[in-house]
Every structure is written in C-alpha cells, then in structure tokens.
C-alpha cells in the first residue's frame, strides 16, 4: 500500500481526508485566514462517512472541503486497516478551540450559526469569558424557516465575520456551507456539529481520560443510551472498510 506515500489526501469509503496532524491542520487554517475566498473546513466521523455512502451530493461536498480532517477514532481505525497514514484524530471541537485562540490573538471576528434558540448566545458568552479579546460579531439559531436562508446570509455578510462556525448537524451544515460558499463574506466556514452546545454547556464532552483513549463515543453511550442506534454505525462502518480492503486486494 505504498502507493499512497507522498499523497496529501487519502480516501476512506470515497470520502477525502487531508493527511495532516493536528498542528498541520491548524497551520492550514491560518493560511486560509490570509486568503480572500471562503474556505470550507469539514470534520467527518464514521457516521458522516456512512451517511455519504447513500448521498452522492454530500460525498462530493465533503470531497471539495479545503480542509477535511478525521473527527473520531473510527476514521483512524479505518486508516490503519488500509495503511493510509492518518496519524491522529482531529476533533472538530479541539480545532475550533485553536481557531478561537487564534481569533483572540489576531483580532479576528467570529459568528456562531446553529443550535437551538438561545444556545449560541450562551456559547458566545462562555467563549467571550475564555477569550477576552475575541470579537463575536453575531449569532443565529439553527431552527429557521427555509425561506429565511437569504436573510441569514445577509445577516452574516453584513458583519463580515472572519470565521463562521455552522452547527446545524450533518449533512445540513456542510450542505449549507457549500450552497452559500461563493456568496459568503467570510474567510473560513466550518461545520461544527454539536460544538456550540458544548460551549454553551447544554451538552458535555467526555472527561479527558476518555478523550485520550479514543473512548469519547463510549462515554456518550453511557450518558445517552438512546444513541445506541447511531453508535451501531461504527461496527457497520468498520466491516464495510474491511470488506472494501478485501475487494481492493483482489484487483
Ligand atoms: N441543529 C440545528 N438545526 C437543525 C438541526 C440541528 O441548529 O435543523 C443543531 C442542533 O441543535 C445541535 C447541532 O445542530 O446543536 C448538532 O446536532 P447533532 O447533535 O445532531 O450533531 P452531531 O454533533 O451529533 O453531529
């Protein structure tokens, strides 16, 4: 499987990932901040890759991401099975934290779009407490009438945030970013899933020990047993990855 050496991206079940470690991913983000057109950052996990199997448009959108990094142990396991050399998990929420620190240091502005009414405001408050210099130029909840999309676009563009965090859940957030990427007056738009809830304190992350061991999913399962349906996707994903490998080595 040495043919992937030297490549800057790899594909897992048809979904592109950039072959970068956390620091390189962050560096790539900082280069986006020097450019003019809107760059898209996506952080798929195995659940999203499975979603993308049956949704061609979603898969193509993920593949057009300017930075697409593996958020979750499932993708890293798949990478190991195929010797694809994705070295580490890059959780969207951790990358977001680095981006917030960057914005705080370099006087850049952010906009939080998504989550239930009131949640983005609460997240903004918590972020402002932690990053005293950050410019939070707007918030918008993610439960809006489809007919209001252009109004939301205008609301964002009016305040010209440098970074737009979009938390509408997948694949809605990635599709929204893709649809409006050419009209958005932002440097970076990133799909962040439940991260605004975590910042607001309405959802909690697993303790660090679980994160380090790649067992964040297990913690969430204990806390929210109803997630079992969603979690069963991980073994299905791995079986599909293994099967795909067997097919590839037959060629
Ligand atoms: N969400 C939203 N609008 C919607 C659907 C979801 O703003 O139409 C928000 C939801 O409130 C949550 C976030 O999207 O804050 C992520 O949802 P989910 O937990 O499904 O995503 P995950 O992080 O598990 O991918």
From TrEMBL:
Which EC class does it fall in? transferase
Superkingdom: Bacteria
Q: Does the keyword Transferase apply?
A: yes
InterPro entries tied to this protein: TagA_TarA, WecG_TagA_CpsF
Q: Which CDD domains match?
A: Glyco_transf_WecG_TagA
EC no. given is: 2.4.1.187
Query: What keywords tag this UniProt record?
Result: Cell wall biogenesis/degradation, Glycosyltransferase, Teichoic acid biosynthesis, Transferase
Pathway(s) the chain acts in: Cell wall biogenesis; teichoic acid biosynthesis
Reply yes or no: does the keyword Transferase apply.
yes
The catalysed reaction is: UDP-N-acetyl-alpha-D-mannosamine + N-acetyl-alpha-D-glucosaminyl-di-trans,octa-cis-undecaprenyl diphosphate = N-acetyl-beta-D-mannosaminyl-(1->4)-N-acetyl-alpha-D-glucosaminyl di-trans,octa-cis-undecaprenyl diphosphate + UDP + H(+)
**Protein function:** Catalyzes the conversion of GlcNAc-PP-undecaprenol into ManNAc-GlcNAc-PP-undecaprenol, the first committed lipid intermediate in the de novo synthesis of teichoic acid.
What family does the Swiss-Prot or TrEMBL record give for this protein?
Belongs to the glycosyltransferase 26 family. TagA/TarA subfamily.
Protein's name according to its UniProt entry: N-acetylglucosaminyldiphosphoundecaprenol N-acetyl-beta-D-mannosaminyltransferase
